[in-house]
Amino acid sequence: MKALWLEHQVLSVRDVPIPVPAGNEALVRVRLSGICGTDLELAGGYYPFTGIIGHEFVGDVVEAPDPSWIGARVVGEINAACGFCEQCAEGRPTHCEMRTVLGIVGHDGAHAEYLTLPLDNLHRVPDGVSDEAAVFAEPIAAAAEILTQVTIGPRDRVLLVGAGRLGQVVAQVLASTGAHLRVVARHENQRALLHARGIETIDAADVEPRRWDVAVEATGSPSGFDIAASALRPRGTLVLKSTYRGDITLALAPFVVDEISIIGSRCGPFGPALGYLEMGAVDPVPLIAARYPLADAVEAMRVAALPGTMKVLLEP
Predict the structure, then answer these.
(1) d(CA 69, CA 123)
(2) Is residue 10 domain-shared with residue 63, that is, in the same domain?
């Protein structure tokens, strides 16, 4: 099969063997995969991964330990847990001490014709949800994780800093709460996409300090962190929705004095994500900027890395 291979920060499209599923795994034929910021970071040396990258996908089950899954159109959670360690035993499988992560840690990924995942990781896609929408299930689940960690309602003032690939779906999920939401967006195309969904934007210079109940940081940059942190009222909540490359220097005293809660937020629940898609509460399809055949995946990665580019899809 063809696959996008990463080795020593060099990308290439290779012919590799179709993966053989383990006893608890299904073999999935990929319909579409999506390039995300993590793929670009891996290619830039963020983490020493060698193999097939990619973790956003929709596909069809072609082999499975349970025959009722064969032929199902599915998306999949990316953390493959051991089921036996302390974290798994205490109900935290996404923090499994021995987990592999699709296309990121120890498990070949989705930018390929086929992939394997444990059957327990798979979720059936509702018939009314298109492939182009379903391929966004993983980032929408990550956005939905915020609402499992923080209670947000119509009376809350919520600031989202960052309107890139992930920030766009975070904005739509947050908007579903009815909260007073504003989004700091740098690029005109980002603002246009948000306005089309009825989501209001705000310039960084106009963010009122010490007035927001919740601030979600989705840029992964020190400047984005500073905007989000300074916006919070005392006893507000700062949600970090991006991984940070390198170190950030910050004064911790204000967080203590103002009793600010800081919450890291990573992978999330697929059930609610598919529900948002089925109900139309989240519509990610307008975020698709380009679509490439898998054979042109290296060029697709180059385009995805251009500033302001939204989602680029690969089709085997």
Answers:
(1) 10
(2) yes
DSSP string of 120-156, one letter each residue: GGEEEPPTTS-HHHHTTHHHHHHHHHHHHHS---TT-
Whether 104 shows a pLDDT value over 90: the answer reads yes
156-184 pLDDT, tens digit each: 999 999 999 999 999 999 999 999 999 99
CB 255 within 8 A of CB 235: no
Provide the domain count of the chain.
2
Does residue 272 sit within a domain? no
pLDDT at 250: 82
- Whether 136 has a pLDDT exceeding 90, the answer reads yes
Q: How far apart are the C-alpha atoms of 307 and 273, rounded to whole Å?
A: 27
Q: Using alpha carbons, select from 57, 52, 54 the residue that is nearest to residue 5.
A: 52
Whose CA is closest to 277, among 180, 143, 154, 102?
A: 143
Q: Which domain holds residue 8?
A: 2-136+284-315
pLDDT of residue 47: 81
**249 vs 12 pLDDT, higher one:** 12
List of residues 6+ apart from 43 with CB closer than 8 A: 6, 9, 11, 53, 301
What is the bridge-based pairing of β-strands 2-7 and 288-293? unpaired
Question: Quick check: 244 pLDDT over 80?
Answer: no
Tell me how far apart the alpha carbons of residues 36 and 172 are, in angstroms, rounded to a whole number: 18
pLDDT of residue 57: 98
Whole-number Å distance between alpha carbons of 10 and 53? 12
Helix (H, G, I), strand (E, B) or coil at 220: coil
